[in-house]
Amino acid sequence: MSDQRTDNLTIFFDTTLSDGGQTRSADLSAADKQFIALALNDFGIDYLKDGWLGANPTDDMFFSKDKKLKNAKLVAFGMTRRSERLVENNPGLNAFLDLQTDATCLVSKTWYFHVTTASNIELDVNTANR
Length: 130
Description:
Blueprint: E1 13-14, H1 16-19, H2 30-43, E2 47-52, H3 57-64, E3 73-79, H4 91-94, E4 103-107, H5 112-118, H6 123-127
Parallel strand pairs: 1-2, 2-3, 3-4
C-alpha cells in the first residue's frame, strides 16, 4: 500500500490573517496581511480566512486589493443578519454581496442559549428570513 494520498480530500483552512491579528500587541497592516497571504499561498494553504469585512479600515483595504494568489482562496468572514434589522437593511450582510472574494464564511448563533441570552431574541426571530 502506498503512503501517497491520491484522493485530494485534505483541505487547509488557515485563520492566521484574522485570528493572528487578534493576538495581544499585534497590529497587522494591509501590507503585512498581503505578505502573509502570499507566503501562505506559496506554502499551499487552500483557504485564507481574513477578518470581519467592515470591522476596520485595514481589513476593508486588504479585501479591496488584488492579492495575486495563485493557489489559495481568500475567505471573508461575517455574520448572518442581526435580529433588529431586515436583510435588505443590514450593511454587514449586504457588504458580502459586493465583495470580490472566492469564498465567504458566514456564522450564525444556533444554540438556544446564545440566541436567547447572548442575542436576547426569541428563537423564531433568529431563524426568520426577513
